[in-house]
Design goal:
The protein is an all-alpha fold. The protein is built from 2 helices and no strands. The chain has one domain. Helix 1 packs antiparallel against helix 2. It is rod-shaped.
């Protein structure tokens, strides 16, 4: 009888350790998730700034293009700046999409580990 009780105690301790490890892993994943969400917000803010900057440069480009003669027109520089901003915006969009995928996969891992606990 005591062997059965000891075996059950060992199994309970093992389950307690497993639950403790999973709880700390979940806490770590939640912290990482929060960090990624913060990063994503920063990238979205930067993207908005890039879009606004691009639109402003386009307006400036149109205004200066109509006022200046062809020899004085700095349109090519502005077009290069606009293209650069668009390229940066696409990079930020890709980074945001990657962060969203990471957040979703972390959420799935947390749910899966919660299901294992049950």
């Amino acid at each position: 009888m005591t062997n059965i009780v000891q075996d059950l105690n060992v199994k309970i301790e093992s389950k307690d350790k497993t639950i403790s490890r999973q709880a700390s892993r979940i806490a770590g994943l939640k912290a990482e998730n929060a960090e990624l969400e913060g990063e994503m917000q920063v990238l979205e803010y930067q993207k908005r700034n890039l879009v606004v900057g691009t639109e402003k440069l386009i307006r400036m480009n149109k205004n200066q293009g109509t006022r200046l003669s062809q020899a004085q027109n700095p349109v090519s520089k502005k077009n290069a700046t606009i293209l650069d901003l668009n390229k940066k915006s696409r990079k930020h969009m890709k980074r945001i999409a990657a962060l969203k995928r990471q957040i979703l996969s972390l959420g799935a891992e947390v749910e899966a580990s919660d299901d294992e606990d049950d």
